[in-house]
Design goal:
This protein is of the alpha/beta class. Helix content is 25%, strand content 16%. The protein is built from 8 helices and 12 strands. Helix 7 links the parallel strand 10 and strand 11. The chain is elongated. The protein starts with a strand and ends in a 15-residue tail after the last helix.
Length: 310
């Protein structure tokens, strides 16, 4: 069995060897290219395609399984996958991202950091703060991240509704939204946790945002492409969206001088909601678990539906 990889991570070869003794590992050098006659059973790569990806996935190479080092696949050329199995480390950052979302909700409700004082305030003891209990949280997407957000929101006694693509039984206490319009109209807080696909491109456009409950708070921890940012600016200026907490935007990095940096209704962070000390270790752990499954010819976790785009 032979594993091909174009990744250069500390101790990667040693850790793969410890996980799968006897497995042959072939390191692909981006400068040297793909050697003639290369053969391999699996490929460990990233969602951002390297210069030799097409050659590595040529039929004569023989790759049967591709695992992406990361959680999203929207940057990967899915048309090259063919009938191979494609997996990623989805779900590995769900806990960190869900905690970030709750931090945004709490910061909004408790007016942080504006509630801190560094000189005597006009009033002691009183402030127009809110509670999350009883508020309606709308989730676009109920995968690993959305589910982790829902559990934490329910612990704060929020009512949770979710828009999901596939027909399935939802976890206890979560209501199914009929469509995005209904979810917008019924939510105090809306969290975007869906993948970037053709179906979710500019999911929040002007027509849909116009139907939102006035004063909506938006949190985007998915991809910037889910939001039409011109429409968002209009909704913010009209007071339809009271505040937008954006950990992702379009494009990224957001260029200097962009209105997202300075609009009073936007809190922009540089795509860091996934960060925690063990984040990379969690991503790798799912690859190692899948490698063991592959060698045992068992079903793989984190499988990507190429047709659906995630």
């Amino acid at each position: 069995m032979r594993l091909l990889t174009d990744l250069r991570l500390p101790d990667l070869h040693a850790r793969i060897a410890a996980c799968a003794p006897g497995l042959e590992i072939v390191q692909i050098d981006a400068k040297a290219g793909v050697p003639d006659g290369l053969r391999g059973d699996a490929l460990f790569t990233t969602a951002i395609p390297g210069p030799h990806l097409e050659a590595l996935l040529a039929p004569e190479v023989g790759v049967r399984w591709i695992h992406l080092y990361g959680t999203g696949v929207d940057g990967f050329p899915l048309h090259l996958v063919g009938d191979r199995e494609l997996t990623c480390s989805r779900g590995s950052t769900a806990t960190a991202i869900a905690e970030w979302v709750l931090a945004m909700l709490l910061a909004d409700a408790k007016q942080l950091p504006a509630s801190w004082v560094d000189s005597p305030p006009a009033h002691w003891y009183f402030a127009s703060l809110q509670v999350l209990a009883g508020k309606q949280l709308g989730l676009v997407g109920l995968g690993a991240i959305g589910s982790a957000v829902a559990r934490r929101a329910q612990a704060f006694e929020m009512s949770v509704s979710a828009l999901v693509r596939s027909p399935r039984t939802l976890p206890a206490g979560i209501q199914r939204a009929d469509d995005i319009e209904a979810l917008l109209a019924g939510s105090d807080y809306l969290v975007l946790a869906a993948p970037a696909t053709a179906a979710t491109q500019h999911l929040l456009d002007r027509a849909r945002l116009a139907q939102a409950r006035p004063g909506l708070r938006l949190v985007n921890v998915a991809r910037g492409s889910l939001v039409d940012h011109d429409a968002l600016r209009w909704a913010l200026d009209e007071g339809i969206v009271a505040h937008a907490y954006l950990d992702t935007a379009e494009p990224e990095p957001v260029p200097a001088g962009h209105w997202l940096y300075t609009h009073p209704g936007v809190s922009l962070s540089p795509h860091i909601s996934w960060c925690e000390p063990d984040a990379m270790e969690r991503v790798l752990a799912l690859f190692f678990a899948n490698l063991e499954r592959f060698l045992r010819d068992e079903p793989l976790a984190g499988r990507v539906d190429v047709n659906a785009g995630y």
